[in-house]
Amino acid sequence: MADNYLERHREEYERKKAAWLRKQRHQPPLKSQIEKPDDEAL
């Protein structure tokens, strides 16, 4: 095996991860909370 095999794969992983994270930041955030009506009898 090459001397830098693990290092090269780690660097490739880090580049792909950074690209994925940049893409995720451009997505609109999901609504995590559902708004409840003021009158819960409805």
Written overview of the protein:
It is a single chain. The chain is mainly alpha-helical and 42 residues long. 50% of the residues lie in helices and 0% in strands. The protein is built from one helix and no strands. The protein has one helix at 5-25. The longest helix has 21 residues, at 5-25. It is rod-shaped. The protein starts with a helix and ends in a 17-residue tail after the last helix. The model has no long low-confidence stretch (mean pLDDT 77).
Draw up the topology in text.
Blueprint: H1 5-25
Instruction: Note the run of SSEs as H and E.
Output: H
β-strand percent reads under 5%
Question: Could you estimate the helical fraction of the residues in percent?
Answer: 40-55%
Structure class: mainly alpha
Uncertain spans: none
Q: Report the major sheet.
A: none
Q: Quickly count the helices.
A: 1
Q: Mean pLDDT score, rounded?
A: 77
| Rounded Rg | 22 Å
**Cα end-to-end separation:** 68 Å
In total, the number of strands is: 0
**How would the global form be characterised?**
rod-shaped
Brief digest:
By secondary structure, the chain is an all-alpha fold. The protein has one helix at residues 5-25.
Note the main attributes of this structure.
single chain; 42 residues; mainly alpha; rod-shaped
